[in-house]
Design goal:
- By secondary structure, the protein is an alpha/beta fold.
- It has a domain of 171 residues: 3-Layer(aba) Sandwich (Rossmann fold), CATH 3.40.50.
- The chain contains 11 helices and 15 strands.
Length: 333
């Protein structure tokens, strides 16, 4: 069991400073930093008002007997954004019965990789932790050999531009590799409503644990929680595949303040607005269409009984329309 760091703590702080200077704070910064940052995530992950992670884990557990039959023998498991590694343990236990080469846990948080590796310490498989960004995937592929099962679980797919992330992954897979991803869907009830999901989304993302989690990277660096207003809206976005929905999260600074970023500082002024990360909500048909357009062929599809959670096993097919060099959802003006 070993851990390889492709990005250092100092490099992370430099990137955080650069983003904050642009008044942006991408979601991946939520998972790094001091131990309380991980604790904040665990609080959100177990929050009853935010059951998405638990529901997706249940769907994977229920789908495993059928999934495993589709896996070739001697796969290596590669999980991007591994978190605590709960879903990965389920997969590893099933894969070990068919022969398993190696387990690669990839995350931007060094602490979370430690947790994920500890969660499977008793399993007899070679384990490697890789501290890296998703966009480092072209560099990461040197560490494993095909065939691999690349996992993008925990609704991670919905936190990126779909064309960008799928084109990036497509370019790094071999014909023998598989991709397993999940997502929390825009439900039929929400889609048919005149105000699709606004009340439900606000109820989920306005919980106290979620809002604290959203500002935790700033709090770790000296920010006062009373010095901001959290704004959230759930808005439609017209794209080339139709109307999709997207959360828009912002922090409005109330008083002048200074944020520590390693050896440097960033000054924030009263009235500044910091753009936070986003989450897309797709219908099942939209999620599958993005995969098709980006060159993936469906092998198996699993849908939860309430129709709100989707798990897809796909493989690399013909080259799609997306490009890893251009992050574009196809949004229309």
């Amino acid at each position: 069991m070993k851990k390889i760091e492709l990005i250092t703590r100092n490099e992370l702080e430099t990137r955080f400073k650069e983003c904050l200077q642009q008044r942006r704070m991408p979601d991946y910064f939520l998972y790094i930093g001091e131990q309380r940052g991980n604790k904040s995530w665990h609080n959100v992950n177990s929050c009853k008002e935010l059951p998405i992670c638990a529901q997706l884990t249940d769907l994977l557990r229920q789908s495993l007997p059928s999934l495993v039959d589709s896996f070739p023998r001697n796969l290596s498991l590669v999980s991007i954004g591994v978190g605590r590694g709960e879903k990965e343990r389920l997969l590893l236990e099933a894969l070990l019965k068919r022969g398993l080469s190696r387990y690669y846990a990839v995350d931007i948080s060094s602490r979370m990789i430690d947790e994920a590796l500890r969660a499977v310490a008793d399993l007899k498989v070679d384990k490697v932790g890789l501290v890296a960004f998703l966009e480092d995937l072209p560099l990461l592929r040197q560490y494993w050999s095909p065939p691999i099962l690349l996992c993008l679980l925990g609704n991670t797919f919905c936190n990126f531009d779909p064309n960008y992330i799928l084109a990036l992954i497509w370019g790094q897979l071999e014909e023998s590799d598989l991709l397993l991803l999940d997502c929390h869907l825009l439900s039929d009830q929400m889609e048919e409503s005149n105000d699709p999901g606004q009340e439900q989304i606000e109820r989920i993302y306005r919980t106290e644990p979620t809002m604290r989690f959203s500002i935790n990277p700033l709090v770790q660096r000296g920010f006062d929680t009373d010095n901001c207003v959290f704004h959230l809206e759930f808005r439609p976005v017209e794209t080339d595949i139709g109307l999709v929905y997207k959360t828009n999260k912002q922090l409005q600074v109330l008083k002048n303040t200074t944020i520590s970023c390693g050896q440097d500082t960033v000054s924030l002024s009263s009235g500044d607005v910091i753009q936070l990360g986003f989450t897309y909500k797709y219908t099942r048909q939209q999620a599958e269409e993005y995969l098709r357009r980006n060159g993936f062929e469906k092998l198996q599809t699993f849908l939860s009984s309430d129709g709100e959670n989707l798990l897809l096993l796909v493989r690399k097919g013909q080259e799609g329309q997306g490009s890893p060099g251009k992050a574009s959802l196809g949004e229309k003006d």
